[in-house]
Amino acid sequence: MKKLSERIVADERPLTNAEFLESYNTNMPEGYPHVSLQILQRFKDAHPALFKPASTWSLERHRKRMIEWLPQNI
Q1: pTM
Q2: Which of 27, 31, 40, 54 has the fewest CB within 10 Å, making it most exposed?
Q3: pLDDT score, position 53
Q4: Three-state DSSP class for 44?
Q5: How do residues 13-25 score in pLDDT, each as one tens digit?
Q6: Is residue 8 predicted with pLDDT exceeding 50?
Q7: Cα of 63 vs its chain's centroid, Å
Q8: Average pLDDT, the chain
């Protein structure tokens, strides 16, 4: 079993578009809309403040926001 601290560190690490896309789509419940690179870019354009100072993704910072944003923007 993984320790809590290992999971937190993994959620905070910077991810590329492809890594975030894979992790997000793999861990979503069946029936929930999946994201594409185009949708990731639209989200990034809509929320530029979430990507400062780095322009990378993290599960900690972006997953919940994406879940809330996606249904109204697909």
Answers
A1: 0.79
A2: 31
A3: 79
A4: helix
A5: 899 999 999 999 9
A6: no
A7: 4
A8: 85
Q: Is 64's pLDDT higher than 50?
A: yes
- The reply to whether omega before 29 is within 30° of 0 (cis) is no
CB 29 within 8 A of CB 13: no
What length does the chain have?
74
The closest of 73, 60, 45 to 15, measured between CA atoms, is: 60
Both tokens of residue 17? 């578009």
Question: What's the CA gap between 8 and 34, in Å, rounded?
Answer: 24
Helix H or strand E segment including 6: helix 4-12
If we measure between CA atoms, which residue out of 59, 57, 47 comes closest to residue 16? 57
What letter represents residue 51's amino acid?
F
CA separation for the pair 15, 29 (Å, rounded) = 21
Mean pLDDT (whole number) for 46-67: 90
- Give the Cα separation of 32 and 2 in Å (integer): 27
